[in-house]
Amino acid sequence: MATPVMGQTCPETPDHSARLAQIVDELRVSRGEGEARVLTQELWALWTDAPDAAAQAMLDEGMSRRSSYDFLGARVTLSRLVDYCPDYAEGYNQRAFASFLSQDYDAALVDLDRALELVPNHIAALSGKGLTLLELGRNEEAQAALRAAVEMNPWIQERALLAEPLGRDL
């Protein structure tokens, strides 16, 4: 695994903001789940494009640990990533996911808010925030977050959690 050398600083996070905005616009008018799935895969490719090899290795390891149900190991690895690259949104989003799965909803919410500060149209972080707020019993805030996520991508699964469906016939 590539790790940063002592004192090494994280390079700038790749600026994918223009393409991210374009994909979100395309998702809003997409005609079906298949089209939305292809666009969402491209979003994930951009979100998980880490600033350098060391950051990518930490992200990949953290996601792998999370997928293997090693939530503590994932959080430790992703915390190293966040410490190394504090302006890389996906480090926070993935650590939030590991925290959510560990039922540490307060920690998840802090990381999701930071991810959304860095990438306001991060649909996955926004829907994750909605799910986290639901777990915390903050239903009104949860509905607002979920509604915002569904407005960006009307095909996400979390649309089923909206108290009142959006006007678009899905």
Describe this structure in words.
With 170 residues, this protein is mainly alpha-helical. The protein has one domain (17-158): Tetratricopeptide repeat domain (Serine Threonine Protein Phosphatase 5, Tetratricopeptide repeat), CATH 1.25.40.10. 65% of the residues lie in helices and 0% in strands. It contains eight helices and no strands. It has helices spanning 17-28, 33-47, 53-67, 71-84, 89-101, 105-118, 123-135, 139-152. Helix 6 (105-118) runs antiparallel to helix 7 (123-135). The chain is globular, with a radius of gyration of 16 Å. The N and C termini lie far apart (44 Å). The mean pLDDT is 93.
From the coordinates shown, what is the CATH architecture?
A: Alpha Horseshoe
CATH class: Mainly Alpha
Strand content: under 5%
Principal-axes geometry comes out as globular
CATH level 3 topology: Serine Threonine Protein Phosphatase 5, Tetratricopeptide repeat
What number of domains?
A: 1
What's the gyration radius in Å? Answer: 16 Å
CATH superfamily: Tetratricopeptide repeat domain
Contiguous runs where pLDDT drops below 50 for at least 5 residues: none
Taken in chain order, the helices and strands follow as HHHHHHHH
Q: What is the percent of helical residues?
A: 55-70%
Total strands: 0
Summing up helix and strand content along with how strands pair, one would put the structural category as: mainly alpha
Largest sheet: none
Mean pLDDT: 93
State the separation between the terminal residues, measured CA to CA: 44 Å
- Give the helix tally: 8
